[in-house]
């Protein structure tokens, strides 16, 4: 038999090269930086708790011993409020670190009255936002929850209303029960122009 002759025609060729080594190294470095940042948040948050506790305790003692000195009490009240807010921020940093590390955010459930909690938050924020007018319209709404976590939520909502809303109008805090659901509503007048509806729809 005669030898077979094969004819091969090359129509085209595509060569794709990717330096996966560099991409992998970049990914590993990003993970290392993120882990380091989380560790630093945990260390800073943990180490700040003790000096902040000392500031809070010291300011409480000063407040007790300066009842006849209203000007000094005003300063002490501001120190107390600032220290409490800083403590809250530190606790939130620790919560974020725990959540990102997969440990979750711990809850300390207890029986509480949401109306009483709302009033205590407003009393605390009134020392910071002195020009704001707060109106608490709260029923006795008993619930089971974590007072500190719920207090953080209320403080953020009411604080945002005082900081970004029109403080010449009252900020309302309504606490009531609808069937078996507890509802807390914070309302404030808009300062300037409201965010357009199309922008709100695109926020995530």
Describe the structure.
It is a single chain. By secondary structure, this protein is an alpha+beta fold. It contains 5 helices and 5 strands, in the order H-H-E-H-E-E-H-E-E-H. The protein has a 3-stranded mixed sheet. A two-stranded antiparallel ribbon has the order 1-3. The longest helix is centred in the N-terminal third of the chain and has 46 residues, at 20-65. The mean pLDDT is 79.
Structure described in brief:
The chain is an alpha+beta fold and 204 residues long. The protein contains 5 helices and 5 strands, in the order ααβαββαββα.
SSE topology sketch:
Layout: H1 20-65, H2 70-100, E1 110-113, H3 114-126, E2 134-138, E3 142-145, H4 147-164, E4 171-178, E5 181-187, H5 197-202
Parallel strand pairs: 2-4
Antiparallel strand pairs: 1-3, 4-5
């Amino acid at each position: 038999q005669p030898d077979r002759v094969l004819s091969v025609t090359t129509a085209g060729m595509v060569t794709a090269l990717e330096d996966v080594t560099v991409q992998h190294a970049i990914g590993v470095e990003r993970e290392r930086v993120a882990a380091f940042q989380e560790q630093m948040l945990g260390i800073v948050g943990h180490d700040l708790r003790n000096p902040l506790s000392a500031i809070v305790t010291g300011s409480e003692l000063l407040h007790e011993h300066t009842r006849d000195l209203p000007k000094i009490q005003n300063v002490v009240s501001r120190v107390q409020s600032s220290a409490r807010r800083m403590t809250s921020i530190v606790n939130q940093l620790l919560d974020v670190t725990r959540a990102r590390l997969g440990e979750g955010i711990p809850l300390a459930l207890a029986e509480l009255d949401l109306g009483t909690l709302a009033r205590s938050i407003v009393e605390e924020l009134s020392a910071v936002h002195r020009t704001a007018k707060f109106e608490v319209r709260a029923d006795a709404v008993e619930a089971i929850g974590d007072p500190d976590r719920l207090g953080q939520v209320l403080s953020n909502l009411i604080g945002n209303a005082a900081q970004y809303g029109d403080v010449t109008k009252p900020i309302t805090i309504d606490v009531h029960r609808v069937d078996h659901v507890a509802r807390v509503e914070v309302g404030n007048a808009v300062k300037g122009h409201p965010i357009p509806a199309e922008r709100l729809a695109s926020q995530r």
